[in-house]
Amino acid sequence: MVTGHGKLRSHLHIFGITHNPKCSCEEEETTNHLIFHSKILCNKRNEMIKQIKNTCGNWPTMNERLANDYLQIFVKFVKSIDFQTCNDTLL
Ligand SMILES: [Zn+2]
Fold first, then answer.
1. Close Cβ partners of 11 (under 8 Å, ≥ 6 residues apart)
2. What is the 72 CA–ligand 1 centroid distance (Å)?
3. Separation of CA 83 and ligand 1 centre (Å)
4. Is there a contact between 90 and 24 (Cβ–Cβ < 8 Å)?
5. What is the mean predicted confidence (pLDDT) over 17-23?
6. In terms of Cα–Cα distance, which of 44, 48, 41, 33 is closest to 86?
7. How far apart are CA 11 and CA 14, in angstroms?
8. Are the C-beta atoms of residues 44 and 80 closer than 8 Å to each other?
9. What Å distances lie between residue 13 and 6, 9, 41, 43, CA to CA?
10. What's the CA-to-centroid distance between 9 and ligand 1, angstroms?
11. In terms of C-beta density within 10 A (0-12 exposed, 13-18 middle, 19 or more buried), how is residue 85 classed?
């Protein structure tokens, strides 16, 4: 999803499990929205940013770097997202 490279799809296709085009914060729920902008993922994103900076990484970063340099941290972030909750109950 981030880069379109085949070997990453198995990790990143989890974004596909949500079919609601709108995020709970009323923005269009795109991959970039979830990674960089969504208010409801603020805490989880901050945790990811902290971990990326712990590896001497920079934030904001490019999608390609998330998928290549920070894949493990990024996958943890993706897996921590409860899409059901995002769409149904959070503000
Ligand atoms: Zn959002």
1. 71, 75, 78
2. 22
3. 11
4. yes
5. 63
6. 41
7. 7
8. yes
9. 11, 5, 18, 22
10. 22
11. exposed
* Spacing, Cα 30 to ligand 1 middle (Å): 9
Tell me the HSE value of 1 on the side-chain side, using a 13 A CA sphere. 19
Give CA–CA dist 16/31, Å, rounded: 10
pTM: 0.71
Nearest to 79 by CA among 32, 42, 44, 46: 44
CA of 42 to the centre of ligand 1 (A): 9
Domains of the chain, by residue range, sit at 6-88
Half-sphere exposure of 9 (CA within 13 A, CB side): 4
72 versus 22: which is more confidently predicted?
72
Q: Please, which residues have CB less than 5 A from ligand 1, an ion?
A: 23, 25, 27, 38
* Interval between CA 28 and ligand 1 midpoint (Å): 7
